[in-house]
Design brief:
Order of helices and strands: EEEEHHEHHEHEEHEHHEHHHHHEE
Radius of gyration: 26 Å
Helix content: 25-40%
Shape: globular
Largest sheet: 8 strands, mixed
């Protein structure tokens, strides 16, 4: 035990006498009667000759060696039973490891000729894409009181503006209403679902599923006492989430609305596949037998009956009514999980180009601000997974190229290339949704001063295949 610093005082009576150097305070655990130290720090007592070893499940804490087996049965870090909706890699995507490139070469190690060729390839693949997205900065009445609260700090106001615009876009797409189940991916504290619930305070038969793989402190979903809405948190990685097996969805077959605020990199692709591929396929499979093989002479008849079949089948499945996701962190995308691989292949690109472009996408937001800029803090700021500044500063200095590419590309050129990479990756997602029967779009939902990650992906079923909400 290190000596306490000046002014640290004495341990609280009845608490452990071990001084935790890392926290600059005494341990707050309660020791056994007659002991000065808690079980974790008891080895500090000279008379105690029992050996403590790091726990094999989590080396951050220790355990008596002679009690290891007993400890492993009750350790909080032990593997817990998988929930019924856990299906290994159901939304993972690519199974062929042959397509996965080997070692990634740092962009700063590329020759000028190689970098120039990559940029030429990028611009050629982007030919014909809509380079200027529509601005759709909206708001919603549900957040007006919070937005006008003078107690909010700068960071809190920025988050509220983003949430207000997301709700405004949802309302414009007629996705805010009764008889819906809202699935928030990467929910964190659940603030986005909170505001959707506030907006629907008079609506009936509303459910919320908050998907988050990490344990989260200061959650807001537990504060909702209104009986008409149901909040349920699913602690699972989106990669393994089978929505069709979630009990609440089996009980009440409501149309789903997938939402997310700053859904990081590959998590967006996992969520899209979870909604429009894994979930929809499971729903269709519940009420349909495998289609019998037909001869060529039957094709005309099949085509004429397709629309009627779709109409009859839609009532038997649980559809996805819409998707509204604020995108971010394209440099954390992964070819294995990416839903737009077919689009990339159609323009002559593959995993090698994708891995370069996803890293170059960081040029759009990283290393572009003044070095003196600090991430503001506030009691009302979001948790780490939804924190705007966290997402805008996650790329490495090596890939941002602020130093290594000086003299080759200007800051503005890197920024333009970064935006083009993000657009190309997002267009692959749009085409994926279109191929699965959705009308999808990208738009700017907030100003760059509020968030540099300011693109919103929206999708609703084409041909108005959404059934009327269940009330």
């Amino acid at each position: 035990m290190a000596a306490p610093e000046l002014g640290s005082g004495a341990p609280v009576p009845g608490r452990c006498a071990y001084f935790v150097e890392r926290k600059k305070r005494f341990c707050k655990m309660i020791p056994a009667p007659g002991r000065r130290f808690c079980g974790e720090h008891e080895q500090q007592e000279e008379e105690n000759d029992r050996k403590r070893i790091p726990c094999p499940l989590d080396p951050k804490h220790t355990v008596y060696e002679d009690q290891l087996q007993k400890h492993l049965k009750k350790c909080n870090s032990r593997a817990k039973p998988k929930p019924v909706y856990f299906v290994q890699d159901i939304n993972a995507g690519l199974k062929d490891v042959a397509e996965i490139p080997e070692k990634e070469v740092p962009i700063c190690s590329l020759s000028k000729e190689k970098l120039d060729n990559l940029i030429i390839t990028l611009k050629k693949a982007s030919t014909g894409l809509e380079l200027h997205l529509k601005e759709q900065v909206l708001s919603h009445q549900a957040l007006q009181e919070a937005l006008n609260d003078p107690k909010n700090g700068e960071s809190a106001v920025k988050h509220l503006k983003q949430q207000a615009s997301i709700l405004g876009n949802m309302e414009k797409l007629h996705l805010l209403g009764p008889g819906r189940c809202f699935v928030e991916f990467g929910a964190g504290r659940g603030k986005l679902s909170h505001w959707v619930d506030v907006a629907l305070q008079d609506a009936e038969n509303v459910q919320f599923l908050l998907v988050e793989r990490a344990t989260t402190r200061f959650k807001v979903d537990g504060k909702h006492k209104r009986r008409d809405s149901v909040f349920e948190r699913l602690q699972v990685d989106i990669q393994h989430l089978c929505l069709n097996k979630v009990p609440i969805l089996e009980k009440k077959k409501l149309p789903l609305v997938g939402i997310g605020k700053h859904l990081c990199g590959a998590a967006t692709d996992l969520a899209l596949r979870c909604l429009v591929e894994s979930y929809t396929t499971c729903c269709d499979g519940e009420s349909q037998e495998p289609a019998p093989k037909r001869s060529r002479t039957d094709k005309t008849e099949v085509a004429s009956n397709n629309s009627a079949d779709n109409e009859s089948n839609k009532d038997d499945c649980k559809p996805v009514a819409g998707i509204v996701i604020a995108l971010c962190c394209h440099h954390k995308c992964d070819w294995t999980h990416y839903v737009g691989r077919e689009f990339f292949k159609s323009v002559g690109l593959g995993p090698v180009e994708f891995n370069y472009f996803q890293r170059m996408s960081s040029w759009a937001t990283c290393g572009m601000r003044e070095t003196t800029t600090k991430a503001s803090t506030s009691d009302e700021s979001e948790d780490q997974s939804n924190n705007m500044e966290e997402h805008e500063q996650t790329c490495s200095k090596t890939e941002s190229g602020s130093d290594t590419l000086q003299g080759i590309l200007t800051v503005e050129e890197r920024k333009e290339i970064g935006h083009l990479c993000k657009l190309l990756i997002d267009h692959g997602r749009i085409e994926y949704l279109q191929q699965h029967g959705y009308k999808a779009a990208l738009q700017y939902y907030t100003e760059p001063a509020v968030s540099l990650e300011n693109v919103l992906l929206t999708a609703v079923p084409s041909l108005s295949l959404i059934p009327e909400p269940t009330t």
